[in-house]
Amino acid sequence: MKLLMKQVVEKVKSFLDGRDEPISSTSDPLIEAIQKALQKKTAVHIIFSETSFTGDIIKYDTERQQLIVKNFTKNMSRIIRISDIRRISFVPTTVQTAQKNRFKKE
What domains are defined for the chain? Predict the structure, then answer.
């Protein structure tokens, strides 16, 4: 019982101090999908908060728990907090290639 109370007190203190606990990479499917996309260098479609964004992951900042994603034309980037992400899906390579070719011609 003392151990349980001690853990509860520690959680309350960390909450009040404003420290976020890092998301464990072994159990979270979002983190696994991010790491897989980075390894394969594939584009992703991210649904978060009230909107969505499609592009390549430029950087995954584990310290700040956020992603930097650029669209296919590389003219717009977005910083997305991991905690805001609802879903990540991979963009098929055919769509990725078509988008990149489309913007090369323009």
Answer: 21-87 (2.30.30.100)
